[in-house]
Amino acid sequence: MKKIFLLTLCTVILISCQKTKKMKDKLFPERPYEEANIDKFYWSDSGWDYTMVPLIKPFQLIKLQGSKDWELSTGFNRFGEIGVYNINSFNVNKYYIYGHKASEINESDSNYNIVEYWYIIDLRKGVKIEDSALVKLDKESDFQAKLKELNLPETFLNPDEVYEQYKQNPVLLWFPEDIKKQLEEINKQK
């Protein structure tokens, strides 16, 4: 009887240890990017109520839970910093973030309606609105002319598609080379 009791007790302990390990893995998943001291800006894809895609630090595309719209901001929402809401296409090229902002229609308050525009953010000028880093253009033809003037590609990305890609592999084309190299090294070890 004692042998059966001891055998049962040992079995229960072993099963508990296995469950504890599984629970530990769920509660505390591996964090290879964090352990490699890679800046969290480049590998974190979400917060407690939003998902995000890093662009050029400190700018991110952010989508709040329950929303279908992406916004481009510094993530801090400080007064006076650049923010563009309702992004439906974008591109990133060295010092520039640019693309198209869809119109916003507020059915309960017609004074809030915002027309579509095309935007170019020149990060060499800073992140504050008063630095004139944000250029808004009302006409697509003016936007295309400005892209040609700045020698920027006229290809655009869909934020939802980029986010899905980023979740699978956090190495994006516009990241600094040293960051891309670190992320790729960690991905090889997985």
Descriptive keywords:
190 residues; alpha+beta; 7-stranded antiparallel β-sheet; 5 helices; 7 strands; extended
Q: Which segments are poorly predicted (pLDDT under 50) over 5 or more consecutive residues?
A: 24-29
- Label the overall shape: extended
Radius of gyration, rounded? Answer: 23 Å
Work out the strand percent. 15-25%
Instruction: Return the string of H and E elements.
Output: HHEEEEEEEHHH
Largest sheet: 7 strands, antiparallel
Helicity range: 25-40%
Output mean pLDDT.
Answer: 80
- What topology, given as strand order, has the largest sheet? 1-2-3-4-5-6-7
Oligomer status: single chain
- Work out the helix count: 5
Structural commentary:
This protein is of the alpha+beta class. The protein is 34% helix and 21% strand. The chain contains 5 helices and 7 strands. A 7-stranded antiparallel beta sheet has the order 1-2-3-4-5-6-7. The longest helix is centred in the N-terminal third of the chain and has 26 residues, at 2-27. The model is unreliable at 24-29 (pLDDT under 50).
Short description:
By secondary structure, the protein is α+β, with helices and mostly antiparallel strands. The chain has helices at 2-27, 32-35, 140-150, 159-168, 177-189; strands spanning 50-54, 60-64, 70-73, 84-93, 96-101, 117-122, 134-137. Strand 4 and strand 5 form a beta hairpin.
